[in-house]
Amino acid sequence: MYKVTVIGSGNWGSVAAKLIACNTITLHSFHDEVRMWVFEETLPSGEKLTDVINKTNENVKYLPGIKLGKNVVADPDLENAVKDANMLVFVTPHQFVEGICKRLAGKIRADAEGISLIKGMEVKKEGPSMISNLVTKQLGINCSVLMGANIANEIAMEKFSEATVGYNQNKSAADRWVQLFCTPYFDVTAVQDVEGVELCGTLKNVVAIAAGFVDGLEMGNNTKAAIMRIGLKEMMAFSKMCFPSVKDSTFMESCGVADLITTCMGGRNRKVADAYARNGGKRSFDELEAEMLQGQKLQGVLTAKEVHEVLSNRGWLHIFPLFSAVHLISIGRLPPSAIVKISEEKPRYSIYLSGSDISC
Ligand SMILES: NC(=O)c1ccc[n+]([C@@H]2O[C@H](COP(=O)([O-])OP(=O)(O)OC[C@H]3O[C@@H](n4cnc5c(N)ncnc54)[C@H](O)[C@@H]3O)[C@@H](O)[C@H]2O)c1
Ligand SMILES: O=P(O)(O)OC[C@H](O)CO
């Protein structure tokens, strides 16, 4: 029997728990109960968030108005939440994962499998390190990923979406994750390319910030489409230059072009970047995030910084004008209008990608 714990309870974490809980109750190979670890906080009412979730079956802060399923149990104790589970779903903002894994080392079941729904990466001395790799290294477990065009609030309302599971070796684990997440309104496909799937989910957040700048500057649809096209090229080039095994076909899955489109149209990164540009860069991302997202976290600004660090370390800044500009704009070193300058430049990824079909 498989027992699932969701590590994280934000907007997407709560929807993931809902999707999983509706399946564990009907599939015989899974325990009904789904534990959801909550980073505890006190609500304005004075009550603990965990207590309110367990009383109302709703995450009133991060997913109000949606019932999670009676078999979802919120738990503020991380060790207790994972101790019986052999399927661990990681879904916190990426900046918190390393600390969480440190706390979990040696505390999980030997037969546990992981999956990361987290869109982000870490930068180590040797280069970019994906979150699935961090989980594997720190906890010694196999870790797949699930990414896609998945604005959580829409899936919470059971509107049709697709998603992509990325795996490397363990196809039977990937199939089990597909079974756990699939519903009539959430269609999941597995591809053998963990890094490719994860890089798509991670890098599209940087392009979404650029798209938000274009919206805030009211530059129109053609400019936004140009930014998305250039962004997709940079996503592909960066992914393949850092991880040569990444497959071109992955970018045509839900995790690739579809996620790029939905995030640039309706995501939180786009929304806050729009406000940043409308304010002429005078109010910081941190300030706007706190005011506009009420505790939810952006991933794009931090990812742009991390990508910039990789580009700088490797001498690649000049061949990734969009990624570079997003970081420099978001820290106030360039004005938001600088985002359109990149379309006048001619990046030459193909020089670095012999044998690839990427060219400009
Ligand atoms: N929301 C979406 O539509 C969506 C869709 C797909 C993927 N994702 C990805 O899922 C991941 C999680 O995002 P989310 O939307 O579930 O979260 P969120 O942004 O809605 O909420 C932030 C979460 O971080 C928690 N938190 C705050 N400080 C913390 C700390 N110090 N340690 C641990 N946790 C802390 C909060 O309690 C909250 O649960 C991100 O990588 C995001 O890119 C989000
Ligand atoms: O709201 P965003 O910008 O964090 O994007 C949400 C999801 O990643 C879209 O798939």
From TrEMBL:
Keywords: NAD, Oxidoreductase. The active site is at K204 (proton acceptor). Its EC number is 1.1.1.8. InterPro entries: 6-PGluconate_DH-like_C_sf, 6PGD_dom2, G3P_DH_NAD-dep, G3P_DH_NAD-dep_C, G3P_DH_NAD-dep_euk, G3P_DH_NAD-dep_N, NAD(P)-bd_dom_sf. GO terms for cellular component: cytosol. NAD(+) binds at G8, S9, G10, N11, W12, G13, F39, F96, A152, R268, K297, Q299. It catalyses: sn-glycerol 3-phosphate + NAD(+) = dihydroxyacetone phosphate + NADH + H(+). GO terms for molecular function: glycerol-3-phosphate dehydrogenase (NAD+) activity; NAD binding; protein homodimerization activity. This is Glycerol-3-phosphate dehydrogenase [NAD(+)]. It comes from Vigna unguiculata (Cowpea). The lineage of its organism: Eukaryota, Viridiplantae, Streptophyta, Embryophyta, Tracheophyta.
